[in-house]
Amino acid sequence: MSDLKPNTQMMRSPGIKLLLVCGLALVMTIPALFVFGIVFDRSSRAETTRSEIAAAAGGPQKVTGPVLVVPVELQNKDGIWQVVDTLLLFAERASASAVLDVTTRQKSLYKVQVYGADLAFEARFDLAALKGTFDTRRKLALGQAQILIGVSDLRGALGDAWLDGVDGAKRKFAPFSGDLSLNAVADVWDEDHVGSRVLNKYQFSPGFGQAISVPVGDLLGEEQLQIKVNFKLGGGRQFSLVPFASTTDLSIKGNWPHPGFGGEFLPTTRQITEAGFQASRTIPSLASGLPALAYDSTFTGWNRGQTGMQVKLVEKSSPYQYVSRSLKYALLFIGFVFLAYFLFEMKADQPVHAAQYVLVGLAQSVFYLLLLAFSEHIGFDLAFAIAAISTVGLTALYAGAVFGRAQTGPAIAVFGSVYGLLFVLMRLEDYALLVGAISAFGAIATTMWMTRNLQWYGAPGSSGLALAE
Questions:
Q1: E strands within 256-410?
Q2: Which phi and psi (to 5°) does residue 457 adopt?
Q3: Degrees (nearest 5) of the Cα angle 121, 125, 130?
Q4: What is the mean pLDDT of residues 285-302?
């Protein structure tokens, strides 16, 4: 009869021990969740700080236009002409280009990309549409016509905006005052409501953001109006060009090697090098869907240009993104390490207390904390090397102390492979799930093979912990 008490013999059974190890692996993911909370808090703080830096430079800028706007006047029953709407004339052909000079600003630990954008617009308007016949009570106030360009935040303006017209004179843009819109009650002579007071609330659409304008009423005497506009605009993190012409040629380039393209119109040609990027696209009339002209009160196409062609100045590596991704595999890798300790325990026939597994699991959780702390200062790759070498060294030396010094070398090899696999998963964005699944299958298959002859209940008269030969 065995000298072990029944409960003691049961606890030293390899089957019971493996179940206990699996349960402990699940429990040890709880500290990893606390680390995830720290990552979220630090990431939110970093995003807030970066947004503040970018906002000080002008924030994400979106430039829209140009559009020719002309007040529409209506004669009331007293013969007085009043502005009741705004006619929008879209360019027949236009081009818009932006050259971004990107620099990095830093506040505390956090960095953000800001830029100064040199903008150039060219547009050709077909004025024949303005020659249409209006009735005797309705007319266009051509002398009050203006060219409008929308800018997300004019605080980012780095200089005056100038228009070159067909007359060769330079005209300076000013913030749009909204004088072309009407938000009042007007006495309107209407065929259906003779002599009645009709409520007219025509207000220029906010689709342009903070618009800038320049008068061009004296340039509308020809069949066409050709203009050029140049100005410099500052911003941060993101830039968008929104086309508002029948056909538009868009071009964005800059000296940042990690652009992220998005928006409603992705570039059709792009080139990305270490020196920077350039991207372009032609938006044909079929894609733009713009009419030759429209009334602002009934025009429904403002939301079609919410993003245009957009470029984001992406960080090459965000420590919070990588640490968050690595935490998603916490259970998998804690399980790998615990399985390795279990196999060392079976081979050495040296019982390991559950508290010792808890210590190993806590070391794995502290690895993520080290990774986060160092990543904020020295970058993810070097931080991973320091945290992984420290954790592998600690757990391997501990395994050597528990199972014998001869097991230190194999422990370093096994645990080093586990952390090497984790680093590979962080770099393989598209194949991370595939590699992780294959690795998990391989770990289970290896454990099954090495324990194929194990006495899971424990052999009578022995501890039952040694792997069977």
A1: 259-263, 269-273, 276-283, 293-295, 309-313
A2: -85, -10
A3: 150
A4: 77
